[in-house]
Design brief:
10 helices, 2 domains
Length: 207
């Protein structure tokens, strides 16, 4: 009984934090919004290049109707990011954004494995699924880069904000954003912290 009573007491204590449960989706939205807006803005600012990359089968994605696909991606990312900021239509906009992240992960990043930054010492680079030549060669590349910078550049200044790394461009970021959007899809924009909450309270009081 003592164990059960302790569990119930702790559970009730944890339940008191639910008054602030809207903060979690709020922070997810505010974290994702600038990333999506920037991605959409970059595509929109170079629309012709974006459409060409979407449609070219040799050095691009080889997608049909590249102008339409590029426009849909821009709309989802740029305007979807704006909606995330205020928490309007959060669950709805999460759907095309998740789809965009999956397309990016599968068509652009999957061949590079999981890691965004090459690190052959990581357990995520160990095995046939995640291992690739880029990761295996990253150690040699970074050592050569360091040697060049130490000889021809101000190495201490160049590394004052952090060490140099080799970009692996794996699916890590795209899938992380996908999972964050998946949380927003199921839980919405957040209690007290989103326009969605107040609209639902006004027009769907029984939910």
């Amino acid at each position: 009984m003592n164990i059960l009573h302790s569990y119930q007491t702790l559970h009730q204590l944890l339940d008191k934090t639910r008054i602030a449960e809207g903060l979690a989706p709020l922070f997810l939205r505010l974290y994702l919004a600038p990333i999506m807006i920037q991605a959409g803005w970059n595509k929109m600012s170079h629309f012709n290049d974006t459409a060409a990359w979407f449609g070219n089968p040799d050095w691009g994605l080889g997608l049909p109707m590249p102008e339409v696909m590029a426009s849909l991606a821009i709309g989802a990312e740029f305007f979807g990011g704006i909606l995330l900021i205020i928490g309007l239509a959060t669950r709805w906009i999460s759907i095309p954004l998740m789809f965009t992240m999956l397309v990016a992960a599968i068509t652009v990043h999957l061949e590079n494995g999981w890691l965004a930054i090459a690190d052959k010492s990581s357990w995520l680079a160990d095995g046939t699924i995640f291992l690739n030549e880029s990761i295996m060669n990253s150690g040699e590349k970074i050592e050569r880069a360091k040697a060049l910078l130490q000889e021809h550049g101000n190495y201490e200044w160049l590394t004052s904000s952090g060490n140099f790394v080799i970009l692996n461009n794996g699916i890590e970021f795209a899938m992380t954003y996908f999972f964050m959007l998946l949380v927003l899809f199921f839980y919405g924009g957040g209690k007290y912290t989103s326009v969605d909450y107040f609209l639902a309270k006004r027009f769907m009081p029984n939910n």
